[in-house]
């Protein structure tokens, strides 16, 4: 088992986000994301390890208030907090 970054998009194709999923292979990581109703665009090995059985949702985009990049920030309860201005944004799935 190893972590994989799974790049997904929303139903409208407007927003992209990243899931980090522990799986035995890239194909298995894509299946896990698809089974959870995500539209998978790309799967690649993640750069840092995660605790077993964890899924971390990450947003790729910019803060709607200040424009700070939110790429790679960890979400809590499907929300990302901008480190620049403190704006909380809900993840789009």
Summarize, please.
With 93 residues, the chain is mainly beta.
What's the overall average pLDDT, rounded?
76
Helix count?
1
What is the string of SSEs from the N terminus onward?
EEHEEEE
In the residues, how many domains can be counted?
1
Tell me about the biggest sheet?
4 strands, antiparallel
Structural class: mainly beta
Describe the strand arrangement of the main beta sheet, using strand numbers.
Answer: 3-1-2-4
Output the radius of gyration. 13 Å
* Intertermini distance: 25 Å
Low-confidence stretches: 50-59
Strand content: 35-45%
Shape: globular
DSSP helix fraction: 10-25%
Count of distinct strands? 6
Characterise this structure:
The protein is mainly beta. The protein has one domain. 11% of the residues lie in helices and 38% in strands. The chain contains one helix and six strands. The strands form two sheets. A four-stranded antiparallel β-sheet has the order 3-1-2-4. Strands 5-6 form a two-stranded antiparallel ribbon. The chain is globular and about 40 Å long. About 11% of the residues have low confidence.
What is the topological layout?
Layout: E1 2-9, E2 16-23, H1 26-35, E3 39-45, E4 55-60, E5 79-81, E6 88-90
Antiparallel strand pairs: 1-2, 1-3, 2-4, 5-6
């Amino acid at each position: 088992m190893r972590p994989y970054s799974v790049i997904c998009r929303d139903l409208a194709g407007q927003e992209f986000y990243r899931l980090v999923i522990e799986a035995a292979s890239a194909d298995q990581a894509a299946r896990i994301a698809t089974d959870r109703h995500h539209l998978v665009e790309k799967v690649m090995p993640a750069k840092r390890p995660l605790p077993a059985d964890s899924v971390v949702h990450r947003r790729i985009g910019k803060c709607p208030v200040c424009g700070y990049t939110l790429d790679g920030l960890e979400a809590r309860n499907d929300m990302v907090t901008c480190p620049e201005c403190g704006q909380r944004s809900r993840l789009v799935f």
